[in-house]
Structure formats: C-alpha cells, structure tokens
Amino acid sequence: xxxxxxxxxxxxxxxxxxxxxxxxxxxxxxxxxxxxxxxxxxxxxxxxxxxxxxxxxxxxxxxxxxxxxxxxxxxxxxxxxxxxxxxxxxxxxxxxxxxxxxxxxxxxxxxxxxxxxxxxxxxxxxxxxxxxxxxxxxxxxxxxxxxxxxxxxxxxxxxxxxxxxxxxxxxxxxxxxxxxxxxxxxxxxxxxxxxxxxxxxxxxxxxxxxxxxxxxxxxxxxxxxxxxxxxxxxxxxxxxx
Amino acid sequence: xxxxxxxxxxxxxxxxxxxxxxxxxxxxxxxxxxxxxxxxxxxxxxxxxxxxxxxxxxxxxxxxxxxxxxxxxxxxxxxxxxxxxxxxxxxxxxxxxxxxxxxxxxxxxxxxxxxxxxxxxxxxxxxxxxxxxxxxxxxxxxxxxxxxxxxxxxxxxxxxxxxxxxxxxxxxxxxxxxxxxxxxxxxxxxxxxxxxxxxxxxxxxxxxxxxxxxxxxxxxxxxxxxxxxxxxxxxxxxxxx
Lengths: 241, 241
What we know:
Strand order of the largest sheet of chain A: 2-1-3-4
Distance between the termini of chain A: 48 Å
Largest sheet of chain A: 4 strands, mixed
Oligomer: homodimer
Largest interface: A-B, 48 and 48 residues
CATH class of the largest domain in chain A: Mainly Alpha
Strand content of chain A: 5-15%
Radius of gyration of chain A: 18 Å
Shape of chain A: globular
C-alpha cells in the first residue's frame, strides 16, 4: 500500500503528525502537494473543491489509502496505527489512545491560538496585542496544565512510565514528541522552565527522537524546519522572559 | 448496558452531543454529575483527579460503559454509534462520519472562541473588546465557511441530501441539529440571514427535531436551556445587526 498524504507545502503543520507516524513505520507514502510528479497542489485542490470525491474534506491534512479518504489528524492516525503496528489490538486500548490523541489535537489548537487569538482570518501583525494577552495565560496556565496532564498519564500507566499507552511505543508517543519539539522551538524559555516538572515527558521525547527511523527522518530533507507560517512559531515577545 | 455520562452540570455544553445520541436511541443512561444518587460531582471529580482510574480523562465529557472509559465527544460518539444503531457497519463510512464529527468539534471550538478569544482563563467581561473583533470575523467568514461546507456535503451525498452520511439518519445528523439549535440561540440574526443559503442543513435540523425520541427529549426537563455559561451564548453585541 502506497499512502498519499495531502497537506499544505511549506510548513510542518498538522501534516507532521502523520509524516512522523509513516516515517517511524518505514511506510511507503507520497507527500502529494510537495511532489509535482504526484500532482502537487492541483491534486490537493481537487479534493477540497469536491471534484475528486463526493466526500470532500473540510481541510488538510487528509490521507488517501486505496479508495478510502480519511481526514483530521487523529482520525488518520487511528486508521493508520493498526496497519503500521503502532497500537495494540484491543478496543479499550485504542479508545484510550484516540482520546489522548484528541487531547493533543486540542493542545495543538491552543498552541496555534497563542499567536492567532482572533482566528485564522487575520495576520499575526494585526492581532499582536491580543496575542500578547493570550500567550501570557497560555504560558502560565494552559501549557503547564497540558504538560502536567501527560506527565500524570505516564506516571499512572500500569505499563510503565516510558510509554503513554500500555507497555510499548505507540503513535501517541510519536505525536507527543512532536509537541515537545515544537514547544522547544516556539517557547524555548517557558519550555525549559517547565521541563524539570515533567521528567517523564522529556525522557519520552528524547527516546522517540532516537528511534532509528525517526532519527533518520529528522536528518533528512523531508523534515521541514519550523517557521513563522505554521502552528509552532517563535515570536520572542510571546515567550516567557 | 446502562451508560454513565460524566459532564459539568448547569449547561448543555459538549455533553449535549452525547445526551442527544443516547436519547435518540432510547438508551439507558445516567447523567452522573446531575444525579446525586449516582454520585454527583464527587463521582466526576474522582475521574479527573485519577483516583477512580489509571486512565484519567483530560476533561469532561467522558462516558463509562462497563469497564471502558471513553473521553472526547467525537470518540464517545464513534464508540456509541454502532451500539446504538446510528451508523452503518463498514469502515469507510465510519471514517467519513468521524471526520465530519471532528469538523463539528472544530466548529464548536470556534463558536466558543467567538466569546472567549483569549482562552478559558478569563471571563467574557475581561475580553469583551477582543470578543467583538473575533465575533465579527466569525460571523462574516467562519460561520458561512462551516455551514456552506455541510450544505455541500449534503448536496454531494450519493445517498441523498436528507442525510450527511449514506442513506439513513446517523449520529452526525443529530450533532449538526444541535449546532443549528445553538447558533439560532447565540447568533439569531446571523443564522437567520444565512439560512436561505443552506436549505439542506435547515431541513435536516427540522427533521431531526421531529424524530420521536428527540422531540420528547426536547420537551422534557432533562433538556437544559442554553445559557451564558456554556458554549452557545447569546450576547447581542456579538451577533450581526
């Protein structure tokens, strides 16, 4: 199976959670919008305008696997994970993993909204004062709330504090690694300050980064750098001092 | 099976999407935090602080079904729907429905953020100026974008424009009904203005409201009124003129 990932080119963005899962498994995939031979942006557009499907996604990322089109990061990951060997078989474990991934979805939205509190329709420069207020409460309240939560999930996992789910690496670990990488880029001071309080999360991120396929991917040209067009943006004025 | 729903009392909130699915199916359930005999708020608290589980939810709503605890609205609905007969069997249809429900999740978050652009940590009164700016772009851009999307999904459904998914009522239709009910409460002018552009969505909402179990529920004391503590808040200054 050759998977087709559709996501905006130029940013890691929400597509990166999917890329990391595919790369970790060594799966065969094409990043369509970044690959002119695969159709590039035109191919992506034909799904959004409904020409290519009668089940049009609201927004990227979406994944095509044979005749199936799956949209939304958490939905794509719960579809892929059993096929890629990144989650155990039983339903209760999968529901728990999907719930954790949906909390990562919410966390991702709040990280984005720290620089775009008035929504996606305005540039950062047009909402900079509002972003300063929102980022202050994000750094003081929301960032610790989410990271302490994931630390608690690790600490009360009967399978040990090396994994969020059960006794082995899962796709949720990979996603949490990406959150930590993004936070270290976007809010280096705030993240450095809180890391001593979340030793399990910090160790998990380190372990995932050293997995063979992930390490190779991070060193490859396929891995795009964080930048100020994506979710994780480094605006020093929004970080803590 | 007696399902246990855990959600904050006093508002319909995100718990309402779950209540509506359970009510539509005539399922046996208890709304724990609103029922002192079932344990009330103390029972809810024991899940959030981790005393009752080693898989603590990040936030309500969550659902207990036997020994399984499921959190996040869309996750709960994809768990319940096959058991309640609210979605067909095949995987491709379920993935499509779940993707639509996750778009409803995102829409719900943007409806909330129209009155809380600086996040949940501040009262509306402390972010009223920012809410006015955010609500203006919400009403002009985001509300039409989401509603036109769902209209398009209805119009290109091979199963007919009466349903979002396939050829029969599904849990996603019920959730979209609730969105429309909430929008009519929170943004009556903006919603009235756009309804002629979304005849399929308006007709779907009407049809769901007339389903026997839904109509009985809406008339019962179990249905809580929208109010200014929940997601859908009527602040006339945020609506269009």
